[in-house]
Design a protein that fits this description.
The protein is of the alpha+beta class and about 230 residues long. It has 3 helices and 12 strands. It starts with a helix and ends in a 12-residue tail after the last strand.
Length: about 230
């Protein structure tokens, strides 16, 4: 009996050692966080390609099956998605864009944490699909996969990854008519009133030629219509 107990304890200790330091999907987490300094009351975020406005943060914590953090683990984020432009911009040729590439790899810190910050352009309903995979295991471990629908506005109205006078051509008609979902950046969708308070948000980005620092990739345009953000508020 004693010998059997000793063998059992030894096997348990061996199993624990084998699990230590290996990413475990059951205990790891992935959380989409909207960092919104603009404090929009009725829309998700207002962003700029250069990251000077709101941002989307995908926070990842990698733990092993003993619930200990896995440090220095390369974590791969793969993204895809669709974009449904707001009505005021029309349904043709107006896409949403995210800065950077569709695949990003970062290492976890001592607490097993890493975070991916997303900026971009475009205005309307955005479906962001993502998969997060830990590369520090053989075979690799898929930690999570998800799909989030977000409503975005941007000083980059047409979602090209940079702010220029082509965006102004999208903004000025809304300013002239004093109404529009995408042009209402100061109060967001609470009022849809467009005035010079919104212009004060737009002009700094236009003046600095705000742009994605490392290029951008374009989300698929959903011509069939997912839904418009101004339909759900």
């Amino acid at each position: 009996m004693k010998k059997g107990l000793m063998i059992g304890l030894a096997l348990f200790a061996f199993a624990g050692t084998a699990l230590a330091g290996l990413p475990c999907a059951a205990y790891s987490t992935c959380t989409v966080i909207l960092n919104t300094p603009t404090a929009c009351a009725t829309t998700d975020l207002v962003w700029s390609p250069n990251g000077s406005m709101d941002t989307i943060v995908l926070a990842v914590t990698v733990l092993d099956c003993l619930e200990n953090p896995v440090s220095s683990c390369d974590v791969r984020l793969e993204m895809s998605g669709q974009f449904d432009p707001a009505n005021e911009l029309g349904a043709s040729g107006n896409n949403g864009a995210i800065c950077g590439t569709q695949t990003v790899t970062q290492a976890t810190d001592a607490n097993g944490v890493t975070s991916f910050t997303l900026t971009g352009g475009g205005a309307g309903a955005m479906i962001l699909d993502y998969t997060v995979t830990a590369e520090c295991a053989d075979p690799e471990v898929e930690l999570c996969a998800g799909s989030d629908t977000l409503c975005v506005k941007s000083v980059d109205f047409n979602g090209t990854g940079n702010v220029n006078f082509f965006d102004t051509f999208k903004y000025l008609p809304q300013l002239n008519s004093t109404t529009g979902y995408t042009g209402d950046m100061a109060a967001c969708a609470a009022t849809n009133v467009v005035n010079f308070f919104d212009t004060f948000k737009y002009l700094p980005a236009l003046n600095s030629v705000a742009a994605c620092p490392s290029g951008s990739w374009t989300l698929t345009l959903n011509d069939g219509g997912i839904y418009e953000c101004d339909d759900i508020y």
